[in-house]
Amino acid sequence: MYTHQKQVxxxxxxxxxxKKAIIMIHGRGGSxxxxxxxxxxxxxxxxxxxxxxxxxxxxxPYSFLAPxxxxxxxLDSALDSIDQVVNDLVEAGITTENIYFLGFxxxxxxxxxxxxxxxxxxxxxxxxTGGLIGETLATDNYQGDFAGTPVFISTGNPDPHVPVSRxxxxxxxxxxxxxxxxxxxxxxxxxxxxxxxxNLVNQHIL
Length: 206
Known about the structure:
By secondary structure, the chain is an alpha/beta fold. The protein is 28% helix and 21% strand.
């Protein structure tokens, strides 16, 4: 098993000049630079971009649907890595209302798990093919109030990694925490990011 060392790729507007920031979280096998490159398709003008890098290019070793203990200590270390980035942004003067999150696949799952465990008013949350983590969802872990934070969640039907049922469970939990959720299920779509998702994210979240 493994844990994560702090490595963060930054781009976009320098943090000293930015009033908003986005944390972009890559998927299994991806990299911080890869996910940050998505920024050229998104409405991120004036935002600082922070993209943490996972050890071994994977935030946790097994499926997000595996028992949580099988993905430890990597999973807890991954959640702590995101928390460190959030704290860095707050210390730099970015309020949580102006912090956005975006993740793809494994990074989308980590995005949702972190924010649901620390629910508060964020700028927005984008989970491109992802759901909350665990064989069964431990709802006691999810605390706080999103206070209307706009959230986008998607998956394909079928998707080889993220079943529709888990997306639906996740939407229900996030809405119970007062998130404003937009979700899309794409029939027959491959495990990828579609132009329609990009358009919806730009319209509803960014």
